[in-house]
Specification:
The protein is 23% helix and 30% strand. The protein is of the alpha/beta class. It folds into two domains: 178 residues, Vaccinia Virus protein VP39 (Rossmann fold); 51 residues. The strands form two sheets. A seven-stranded mixed β-sheet has the order 3-2-1-4-5-11-10, with helices on both faces. The chain binds S-adenosylmethionine. S-adenosylmethionine (SAM) binds next to β2.
């Protein structure tokens, strides 16, 4: 397994944690409620759909959901829950792959735009989201806010989460705008399990510029799926970018 592409079969098999963590009802409920409302009765496309953590309950809510996903192993897990008719998936790169049809909602959650490790890749992802949208549709991004304030001069690492049996450590390369997350799980003994993933961190303002390059306009930014105000202390955000009604499909966003 590579640090830049950790989504292999072993990761996929242990990804789901039904009822807890990112699968807890208090996490998933508001996510699905918000996305269902933003779909506005239209079709939804999830970029990096994974094992269907969000897509499956959203489809069960009556929203037609399609997906794009790079890892066949993650799609294999999704297929243990729903078939191709319920949630069709194109296996490919969310920065370039085309899913059939048009959508009133495209969404990319759980910090996953940061899995694209270059600015070019992230810009292409916005453009790809925009070209799947019907005029008036929206692209929703959930992403953490880079915690560089926790990084004193001369330090390259932060512990961003600590609880019994778990440590979350980030190591930074601020020149390359990269961070590697190290998830360490351990019990009472001396053994520990390590899962690592590489990310390109992005400020909200840089995301907004990528959206403008793609012909999208920032409509809302909240601290969470419940719509709490986004403040200077928010650790994460949910941002809604709208494709204007008069924006022709394949218009300026397709150029340059
Ligand atoms: C943190 S998981 C999120 C999965 C799902 N969206 C969720 O919320 O549970 C990240 C997913 O992004 C996928 N991924 C990473 N880079 C990708 C890319 N360039 N194109 C499509 N999928 C990608 C991985 O394979 C993995 O399934």
């Amino acid at each position: 397994m590579s640090i830049e592409d950790p989504w292999d079969r072993a990761t996929a098999r242990t990804y789901d944690t039904p009822g807890t963590g990112m699968f807890a009802p208090e996490v998933l409920g508001p996510t699905v409620d918000r996305l269902a409302a933003l779909a506005g009765g239209g079709r939804a496309l999830e970029l990096a759909v994974g094992t269907g953590r969000v897509a499956v309950p959203l489809a069960e809510r009556g929203v037609p959901v399609s997906g794009i996903e790079l890892s066949p192993a993650m799609v294999e897990q999704l297929r243990t829950k729903v078939d191709e008719d319920a949630v069709p998936v194109v296996v490919g790169d969310m920065a370039s792959a085309r899913a059939p049809g048009e959508f009133s909602l495209v969404y990319l959650v759980y910090n996953t735009i940061s899995n694209l490790l270059t600015q070019d890749g992230q810009v292409a992802c916005f453009r790809n989201a925009a070209r799947h949208l019907t005029p008036g549709g929206c692209f929703v991004v959930e992403l953490w806010v880079p915690e560089l304030r926790a990084l004193p001069p001369g330090r390259e690492a932060t512990v961003w989460h600590s609880e019994p049996g778990y440590l979350g450590i980030d190591t930074y390369d601020v020149l390359a705008q990269r961070v590697v997350s190290h998830h360490v799980r351990f019990g009472d003994g001396t053994d520990a399990q390590l899962f690592r993933s590489a990310h390109r961190y992005v400020w909200p303002s840089e995301l907004d510029l990528m959206a403008r390059l793609a012909g999208l306009v920032l409509e809302d930014r909240w601290a969470d799926w419940d719509g709490s105000p986004f403040t200077a202390d928010s650790r994460s955000h949910v941002s809604v970018y709208r494709l204007p009604q008069d924006q022709p499909v394949g218009g300026p966003r397709a150029a340059g």
